[in-house]
Amino acid sequence: MKLAPDEKNCYEQKEFFIYSRNSEIRGVDIENPYYNYITPFTDPDVSQVKTIDFDALEERIYWSDLKPRFIKRAFINGTGIETIVSADLPYAHALAVDWISRNIYWTSSDLEETQINVARLNGSLRTSIIHGLDHPQCLIVHPLKGKLYWTDGNNISAANMDGNNMKNLFSNQREPVGLSIDYAENKLYWINSGTGIISRCNLEGVNLEVIGSMAQYLTKATALAIMGDKLWWADQASGWIGICNKVDGSEPVIMRKNIATVLHMKVYGKEMQQGTNLCSVNNGGCSQLCLPVSETRKTCKCTVGYQLRSDKMSCEGFESFLMYSLHEEIRGISLEPNDKSDALLPISGTSLTSTKGNFHQLMYPFHDTTKYMFWTEWGRKPCIGRARLDGSEQIVLVSSNIAWPNGISIDYEKNKLYWCDARTDKIERIDLETGESREIVLSGNNMDMFSVAVFGVYIFWSDRAHANGSIKRGHKNNATDAVTVRTHLGVNLKGVKVFNRAREKGTNICAKNNGGCQQLCLYRGKGRKTCACSYSVLAADAVSCHDYDGYLIYSERTILKSIHLTDETNLNPPIRPYEKPEYFKNVIALTFDYRQSSKNTNRIFMSDVHFGNIQVINDDWTDRRIIVESKYMPEMNEYYSYCTYFTNNHLFVI
């Protein structure tokens, strides 16, 4: 709000100056930049902000944050802060909002490559459009013209907003910063930070003009913005923010002094985001992304994992692509080495590989006639084993000349089982049914193979010793002449797997009504099945399940677990483990109320010395409640005859 000329009333002015520093975003008054027009965005919402932009239609500010690797947005009144692109984001140095087509563009860099991406303003339907960049810093869009501009090192480049028609406009600039568009005049502006010279040209990159009169003010320029007939600029060396005439740099005025490094700036105003294009109405008829490429043309594009149908408007999922896992992430890429686009949005936030003992990897293919699962084991007796899907008929297929078998994969066309060995540096295969006809497909040196996948006439494998983590492809009969699909994926590269939509077809006895089983139906091949139970025991009818009559329950501070009282060979817990850190912090005593006459009403009592209470919960983990609260923390309890007894060592009482 601003005070009106009558000095009595206030009015809302939706035009102000936004700038970002390392750990804050500020919106200040245009006439007096010392006055905050909006509440500043600071820690923890901003950690290491790089670039900002805005959408005047929804009155939101967007920013990229390098430290948590997020792109966020919020309303200008400070509410509605949300992350739209999150943990999988590799270092977004620049972003730009297409306020007409309702898309957001940003640059991202990782060990493998640097690219420009696009998504809807809420972060959905993400895809990449330009690859193979070096060090992009500035990024701007002209959605009326369908053009995209960016700086890359000392170069300034342009492309259509779908990534096509890319060309270099200028080379050998001197640290260009503050790339901006004068939408009223259709001019491109930037500052060469190394010389203090302001440059401008038309949108095609011709008619270059330079303004040298501002060099004394711009000894280390960092940002530039355009408003009307004025240029706003920021200089790191002097700590100044100022304005000058955009035509010739005349009439310079210092608007604010003693301000730490300004990284980016924008002038917020609705009149600066006007106009329409072919994507304005009904998303241009596109089912996913609509990207303008000129005043008269647009392109429909699909998110990662989808491709355009023949109508060039709607999208359909990929039939096949290659998935690979890192330590806490799953990604998908094309099966073709020359195609560097992603095929799957990264899935992150959980540990994807956990091994205990010698057992390493399990695969249970839907084999047409036999229905087996296969696994590898390490340790003193490394081997490859096979069993029916219910665990019966276990046999060892391979036990000799094998050291560290990792990934296993099925060739469904030839009925072959493939595996790689990280110690012998080999990929081998055997007959799926008999375990015979063992053959070496690839043998090498100084490799660190972790997984292999078979698809069509090719095999794909991960090699963590090559080029800081690579995926390679070779012929499945002889992979000596291999090609590299991707490099620099990191030493945490692990599994590879081919997704193929057509592969998972067919049916069996378990497909209809779960084979008549109450819980699990496990197909054994040749029309046979076995029913099984989860956290319960199979009844005499071999179909239904019932609870165990008794078990031992114990606590591990924040989790409740159980084991069998008599069957030491049964490693499946009698009841599902229960972990709720918000409820349990240090459970040190348990007791049980067994009610045989009714189902799912057995109760567990526990005392938690962290919260200082006694809680009760049903053994199916429903109906949890606190029955005793005490600042002296009950330490042991027992249930008898509808009463709960507990000790208190602070008061020395029961």
UniProtKB/TrEMBL annotation:
Ranges: LDL-receptor class B repeats: 59-101, 146-185, 371-414, 415-458
Biological processes, Gene Ontology terms: canonical Wnt signaling pathway
TM region positions: none
UniProt-listed Pfam families: FXa_inhibition (PF14670), Ldl_recept_b (PF00058)
Any one annotated GO CC term: plasma membrane
GO molecular function terms noted in the UniProt entry: Wnt receptor activity; Wnt-protein binding
SMART domains tied to this protein: LY
Gene3D superfamilies attached to this UniProt entry: TolB, C-terminal domain
SUPFAM superfamilies, A to Z: EGF/Laminin (SSF57196), YWTD domain (SSF63825)
Protein name from the UniProt record: EGF-like domain-containing protein
Phylogenetic placement of the source organism: Eukaryota, Metazoa, Chordata, Craniata, Vertebrata
